[in-house]
Amino acid sequence: MPKVVDHDVRREQVAEATWRVIGRDGLDGATLREIAREAGFSTGVIQHYFLDRDDLLAFAAGQIAERAGQGIAQAQSELAPGLVRLRAMMLILVPRDLESARVSALLSFWARSAIDPVHNAIHNQAYDALRRTVRIEVVAAQEAGQIDDRRDPADIADSLIAFGDGLCVRSTLEPTAFPEDRREQLIEGMLIALAPSRRTDS
Predict the structure, then answer these.
(1) Inside any domain, residue 199
(2) Cβ-based burial of 152 (10 A; exposed 0-12, middle 13-18, buried ≥19)
(3) pLDDT digit string (tens) for 134-149?
(4) How many Cβ atoms sit within 10 Å of the Cβ of residue 56?
(5) Residue 48 in domain
(6) Domain of 47: which CATH number?
(7) CA–CA separation, 188 vs 162, rounded Å?
(8) Which of 30, 31, 66, 166 has the greatest count of CB atoms below 10 A from its CB?
(9) CB 14 within 8 A of CB 35
(10) Per the structure, how many domains does the chain have?
């Protein structure tokens, strides 16, 4: 009997191989031939699933956002709304495996999105969805009295995402200065700073 191939799984395997090549050789080194070699496939197999290198890179970039979205969805299904979920989301934005190929590829795709309209569209679509999700949890935390309700939830969501992105970059470039326990402390400090201030009666 012919071997049954799960095409979605194979495309994900190619995306993961793409991350590894980018992490090792940079974006310029991520040729179809090198990605095929890393994945253990022929270039013909790669070309069966992707129109060209740009199509493959766009898919690989989208898969990073997809994985983060899956982690956030899991947090939403398992944790109470509000601050607990926000904390979990921040830890997803600043992953523990900062030395992984996925994170190296993410930073490369961020740089590419600044000059490539296709990658910029992928980036913006992912972040629009992330902003909406984080804002919902900010509102829930405000309604629960966990975050100052006088602040604009959209501004808070943008601040948290920007903080997470910045911490991810700095931690990747300076891993000894930002070990995992310090990253978690900084995230906790950011969330504590959002707590309602004590109001005194005049």
Answers:
(1) no
(2) exposed
(3) 999 999 999 999 999 9
(4) 22
(5) yes
(6) 1.10.357.10
(7) 15
(8) 30
(9) yes
(10) 1
